[in-house]
Structure to design on (550 residues):
């Protein structure tokens, strides 16, 4: 029983990471019908940005005297700084890689390939800039273990899970209740008519990239705090998995990204609880394959009705 | 002069679609641009509303003036938000995945006169009661005629004082068509909305417009009041079925 509940917390934590990354795929897809394959690497860049922000605030570069700021203060500052800086990276990619192609009317396939290349550029750019050595993320939060009866959870796990839930509620509000959210949904349906509503289309697209990559940065920070070893390829596999989670949930739908993310995590951890861990990905993805077999547009996906 | 198109030459790729057309619209007028398929009517509207690339037609000569100022450098969204020129495009282009009400709300995205938004929404619902009944439905579930109403309602909600209407009669049964044109006339008379009406159906267009121009393969071949055009033997023969 204890192990069972422990596993549920682990699954919730992993699911939170998947969900926070998956939402970036789903937002961009929901607006541009583009699969931004660089997104996993934006998450990696986010983790590195978090590393540099944290070590800077800790006083490693001599600007701030070491010990001036408490770990909690550093975390409070690192969250917005990491999100802002990571979203700048996302927006830059959009500006220099995707927008020029869009303006020339390139087919989406070429933009997807460009996204793949951008991901590789980010990975290898990191390798060239920082070398192959891994970075150790400093400890910002003192590890506290809360015990309820026989179950114990760490403060970090709770933080990660609550962050994912808060982000979900925030995004669901933005997308369904605000005019910008309406515009985001409308673009994918009919891009032609957006400027006719007086809406600067590129502002909406930039806003989408800010949201997606900002939260990838947040995921990067939380991930680095939970698994404090950083390396340039850390975003590749988790990015793929989050993308698959978004598709299984129903790409283009915020609820789908979260449901898919948690589903994947529960299946993975469920498999490991019963079978040898080497079977984890094999069995997890087989389950997802069956789900897509049954519902090809994902759990929340709706088959696009043809326009009359 | 509210809107003045002067010697406009427009190319799509390497093909010239408009060979130097000129026409004017005064404030409060209903002006119609009639002509056959491929005459350049939609191109004219798309040039005025400055579609973003890659759809944008390219102006190679001539000018479009709005209240005396050239608007060729104005970005497409500002044509709506700053100049209040709104297009209800051919094929409606409503956002089918949003509800009727969301379509109308989204159109107010860039409006600065927040106070008038509710008044205008009430007005749209009064002019098109069907839209009020169906405001919570996904708009792709509307019939073709209702989608047409939504396209016009949306153009009005965007704060448009000049409405460019591309084939508003398309696909409508005659009865609905007349009802729609009467509503447009009301928008013109009661709200002072200027209308540029592009139509293949010359008969109904000349019944409701004050003046008209006949466009034929990228050139204006006739102009005058609706009565003059309707009486013109050439126009009669080519566009009114003898």
């Amino acid at each position: 029983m204890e192990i069972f509940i422990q596993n549920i917390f682990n699954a919730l934590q992993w699911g939170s990471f998947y969900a926070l990354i998956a939402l970036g795929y789903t937002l961009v897809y929901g607006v541009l019908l583009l699969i931004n394959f660089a997104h996993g690497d934006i998450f990696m860049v986010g983790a590195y940005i978090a590393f540099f922000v944290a070590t800077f605030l800790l006083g490693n570069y001599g600007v701030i005297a070491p010990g001036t700021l408490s770990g909690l203060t550093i975390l409070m500052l690192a969250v917005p700084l990491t999100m802002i800086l990571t979203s700048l990276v996302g927006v830059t990619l959009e500006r220099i890689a995707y927008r020029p192609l869009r303006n020339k009317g390139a087919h989406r396939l070429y933009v997807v390939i460009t996204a793949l290349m951008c991901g590789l550029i980010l990975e290898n750019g990191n390798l060239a800039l920082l070398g192959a050595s891994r970075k150790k993320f400093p400890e910002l939060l003192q590890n506290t273990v809360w015990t309820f009866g026989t179950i114990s959870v760490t403060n970090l796990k709770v933080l990660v899970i609550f962050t994912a839930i808060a982000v979900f509620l925030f995004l669901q509000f933005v997308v369904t209740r605000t005019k910008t959210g309406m515009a985001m949904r409308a673009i994918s349906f009919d891009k032609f008519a957006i400027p006719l509503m007086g809406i600067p289309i590129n502002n909406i697209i930039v806003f989408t990239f800010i949201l997606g990559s900002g939260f990838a940065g947040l995921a990067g920070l939380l991930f680095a705090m939970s698994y404090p070893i950083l390396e340039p390829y850390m975003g590749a596999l988790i990015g793929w998995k989050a993308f698959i989670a978004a598709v299984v949930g129903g790409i283009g739908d915020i609820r789908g990204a979260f449901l898919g993310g948690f589903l994947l995590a529960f299946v993975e951890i469920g498999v490991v609880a019963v079978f040898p861990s080497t079977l984890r990905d094999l069995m997890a993805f087989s389950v997802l394959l069956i789900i897509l077999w049954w519902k090809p547009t994902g759990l929340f996906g709706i088959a696009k009705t043809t326009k009359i | 002069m509210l809107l003045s198109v002067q010697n406009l030459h427009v190319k799509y790729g390497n093909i010239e679609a408009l060979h130097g057309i000129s026409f004017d619209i005064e404030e409060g007028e209903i002006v119609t641009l009639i002509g056959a398929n491929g005459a350049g009517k939609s191109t004219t509207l798309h040039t005025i509303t400055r579609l973003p690339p890659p759809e944008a037609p390219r102006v190679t000569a001539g000018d479009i003036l709005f209240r005396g100022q050239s608007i060729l450098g104005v970005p497409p969204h500002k044509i709506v938000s700053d100049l209040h020129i709104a297009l209800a495009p051919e094929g409606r282009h409503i956002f089918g995945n949003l509800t009727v009400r969301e379509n109308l709300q989204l159109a107010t995205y860039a409006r600065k006169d927040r106070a008038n938004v509710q008044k205008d929404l009430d007005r749209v619902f009064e002019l098109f009661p069907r839209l009020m009944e169906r405001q919570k439905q996904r708009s792709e579930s509307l019939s073709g005629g209702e989608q047409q109403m939504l396209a016009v309602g949306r153009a009005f909600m965007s704060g448009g004082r000049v409405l460019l209407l591309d084939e508003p009669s398309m696909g409508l049964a005659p009865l609905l068509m007349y009802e729609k044109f009467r509503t447009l006339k009301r928008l013109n008379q009661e709200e002072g909305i200027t209308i540029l009406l592009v139509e293949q159906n010359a008969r109904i267009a000349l019944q409701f417009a004050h003046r008209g121009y006949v466009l034929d393969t990228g050139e204006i071949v006739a102009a005058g009041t609706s009565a003059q055009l309707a009486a013109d033997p050439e126009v009669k023969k080519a566009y009114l079925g003898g």
Q: What stands out?
A: DSSP finds ten helices and ten strands in chain B. Chain B has one domain: 28-48+74-239. The two ends of chain B are 34 Å apart (CA to CA).
